[in-house]
Design brief:
The complex is a heterodimer. Chain A is an all-alpha fold. Chain A is globular. Chain A has helices spanning 3-15, 21-29, 38-46, 57-77, 100-119, 137-140, 150-155, 160-163, 194-208, 218-229, 235-239, 241-256, 271-285, 287-295, 304-309, 318-329, 336-348, 350-355, 358-366, 373-391. Chain B is an alpha/beta fold. Chain B has a single domain (8-210), classed as P-loop containing nucleotide triphosphate hydrolases (Rossmann fold, 3-Layer(aba) Sandwich). In chain B, a hairpin with a 2-residue loop joins strand 2 (47-56) and strand 3. Chain B is globular. The chains are: A mainly alpha, B alpha/beta. The A-B interface holds A 109, 113, 116-117, 119-120, 123, 158-159, 161, 176-177, 179, 181-183, 215-217, 219-220, 260-262, 265, 295-297, 301-302, 305-306, 309-310, 314, 352, 355-360, 362-363, 366 and B 1-3, 6-7, 21-22, 38-43, 45-49, 51, 62, 64, 69, 71-77, 95-98, 128-129, 131-132, 134, 157, 189-192. Chain B: It comes from Amphimedon queenslandica. Chain B: Belongs to the small GTPase superfamily. Rab family.
Amino acid sequence: MASKSKVASFKEVLSKEEIDIEELRRLCFYGCTDKEGIRATCWKILLGYLPVKRKYWEEELRRQRSSYHRLMNDVIINPYKEEDQTEAVDHPLNPNPDSQWHKYFEDNDILLQIDHDTRRLYPEISFFQLPTMYPRKAFNTGVVLGIEALKERVSHSSLPSQKVESSRYGVRKVKIKKNEEEPFSPLKEGEEGHWEVVERILFIYAKMNKGIGYVQGMNEIIGPIYYIFAQHPDSLWKEHAEADTFFCFSNLMVEIGDNFTKKLDRSRAGIGGSMNRLMTLLKDRDTEIHKNLIDKEIDPAFFGFRWITLLLSQEFLLPDVIRLWDSLFSDSERFDFLIYVCTAMIICIRTDILAADFSVTIKLLQNYPIDDMQRILQKAQDIKQFYSLSKR
Amino acid sequence: MARATDKKYDHLFQLLLCGDSSVGKTCLISRFADNEFRHTHINTIGIDFKLKLFTIRDKKIRMQIWDTAGQERYETLTAQYYRKAQGIILVYDITREETFRNVTKWLRNIEDHGVKGVKIILIGNKVDLESERKISTRHGQKLANQHNIKFFETSAWKDINVTEAFTELAEQILAKVESGGGRDRGSSSIRESAIKLHEQQPTPATKSHGGCCSGGSSN
């Protein structure tokens, strides 16, 4: 399909007063385009953030974006203020779990972990290190409101016992000295890197979803979504990339959150169930390779755990991940197609696996050698077709 | 695939690294196995794997090194690999107190899930960040002594003591295997029996590296 007509067909579907979701899914399945912000719009619809009726878009976006602003305020600016009157008796060493100080330190532990992980988000591209055009200055510098910037909270959160007695805000300037080979060029005062936006979204998500909290790997899920939204050609949509990402990510986590939950590991809904489905499907489609893996005692957890939990985002380069996610998100039975793709990935390297011993097999599966996304998707589609035909 | 050459080793050892997230487990392995260091690498999700061929006392050792995710969520997954390991490297970050406090928790995990008599060493990583140090060498050494395990302070970045630490662990496992006290994993759970290149021969008792950090500066 020529690029122009691709844009045209997307525009046609997206311009309808009530968008035909099935039609949109069919189009997206074969890959969206970034032209005119089409991919961002499609993902927002597919992830249930934008309603199918266009006339509600404006109102819905306004409502959600302002509610994100309130969340930012509640979670970052004002979380410890409600019991201000207790501050006279509260102190950093207060062992009471309801102590505002206690909560503050607990939050900082979460923040520290998120900070570590978002700093190393997609190191192969520069995007996340670059400054956003829309820094949340109030949240970033904190000066005006007398609150600490998230990043500054983190930079000294590992030494609260030594430093914090003085004042909660007085230690703001304590900064960790960075290595001279620090790979990230420092941003100017008031600037904010895209990774810091991602950090803030994850922190708010963790605070709002305490049952699941922050789990390593969520950063990899949120990365591509924010990457698409933050490069929207329309400046208003671009400006609200943060809020939009938060809600799309939250919606997505409703569907895949079970994979991030330890207590569901062995259940059908959790990652254990998904890995079983992968192996069952593989056995059905390619008995020989399945038997080979079993004989070599290759546990699906060695590769399948990461593949499925992260929607394959660590296995391919970002542009390929994005293309793959077009198909994954347009799956009406999310995330069946993901399992098909994983199966296809194994079958695509079957010859290598059959010739390999235990170690080499694991290396192949953990450092997946094929970068031809089209080939993998084609194979996955064949598998999908096989099952949809056999269902009839 | 390099299948034929793969098998030219005397012993197959399985090692596992554990410890809190972001203490530098992956970096230590990359330094040891590939002699490289990257400031930015992605999180380890689940369990990762590296191979290293390595010689001690004329014995060719093929090391399978398992890298685990440090976050609590991944514990149930990673714990099941403890029992496959003959040697475990437990890592903390000398600049972050809580990672040191958690060493006890990790030791308990090893006790619960590891095989009896598994060889363990303790590593305090990131000595290149001396100005941010929170845990003194003495403290680390004391904890190691309490548990009767060897202790090293390392820097994966500056390549300090990394090989020494892995070597020490390999030495301990080798001694155990040679004294008949440990099964050689090559022929058990994993289908990669080691092909004996050398017939059983008396091994010279030369120690290739002393290496253990005995309380002084690690530089």
